[in-house]
Amino acid sequence: MLLKLILSFTKIGMIGFGGGSAVAPLIHKEAVIKHGWIDDEEFIDIVAIANSLPGPSMPQMAAAIGYKISGVIGAIISAICIIFPMALLFVVIMVALLTLIPIEFLGLFVTPVLGVIVAMMVSLTKRFLLSSLKDLGIILIIVIAGSVAALVYFFDVNPAYMILVMLISVFLFSKGGAKE
Amino acid sequence: MILEYILGVLLIGLVTFGGGPVFIPMFEKLFVDQMQIFTFTQYSTIVSVVNSLPGPTGPKIVAYGGYILGGWPLAILGILLLIAPAVLFMLLAYKSLELIKKSPRMQNVSIYIKPIIIGIFTAIIVKFVIQSLSGFAYLYNITVQDNGNVIFSIINTILVFAVSYYLIEVKKKAPILIILGALVYGFVLAFGTAYIADFII
Prior knowledge:
The structure holds two protein chains of two kinds. By secondary structure, chain A is mainly alpha-helical. In chain A, 79% of the residues lie in helices and 0% in strands. In chain A, helix 1 packs across helix 4 (57-97) and helix 3 (40-52) crosses helix 4 (57-97). Chain B has seven helices and no strands. At the A-B interface, helix 1, helix 2, helix 3, helix 4 and helix 5 of A face helix 1, helix 3, helix 4, helix 5 and helix 6 of B.
């Protein structure tokens, strides 16, 4: 199991362009679709927490999944595997290859990958939207998602506050799961 | 100097929310203004390479700064200092959420987290669409030596999106193949437009 964690997170670290939440679809593909380590609900919790806490999100998401599978050891190994290979390779590239590759061209080749990230994010967002529609009305989803998107995009508001507000309002208004 | 590096990296790890691009100005303050490991121009070069390669943004910058300062040991130490507190918080928060969810009142919390994540993802999608448009416009400027062509960048952005979406949703292709394909397309496009522009002019 540890070996699978190592392979999966090393792979994600090596192909995950964009950093942070842009890598979430790749993690979803490995951890939910391919290996079934966690389900959609747990994945969403993990993304939500990683977005709310300070520090890099990639090792945070990896660590939570690793923890779920193999405890603290799994968490440490997953965080290290998603970060270290590419970060150290980056130093090698900077030191050894910078003189050989013209940097402005490096940026040009990568431009289409942005469109791939968009496609992966849209595909995952659609999946969550469809499953969310089973629980909530479309208007409520649009209102919540729309205001969160606007606050994050235009005002750089930390999602932690919105999640906190949501937790408090669920606590206040929920009549308890027993009735459902 | 080493102590300054250790404290600086630790602090950035503790106060930087959002990850990714947010790290870039933070490390500029530490490495360029405060410690003067890099000049502004050097740092701009580093950032453009960081953005062109896969993997986590913050740890890559830290690793290179640490390497310049004191070789591999400081590169590795820097990464650990940046990610260790973040991972620790993550595990604590994850545990707490599990406890919160045990309370019968909070059982359906996940139902409401979902639209929040949909919102966060939507903001990211908009950001990357704009980056893609300006990226293709920049590619056109550089290769054709002409002002950014709006139609060129819109067509390319839609084309790449449509093809990748089809491969992901319908063909269920592995992401690594689609990403490699996109890199090849970027390579061909950059040289292709440069060649055609030369040919016409």
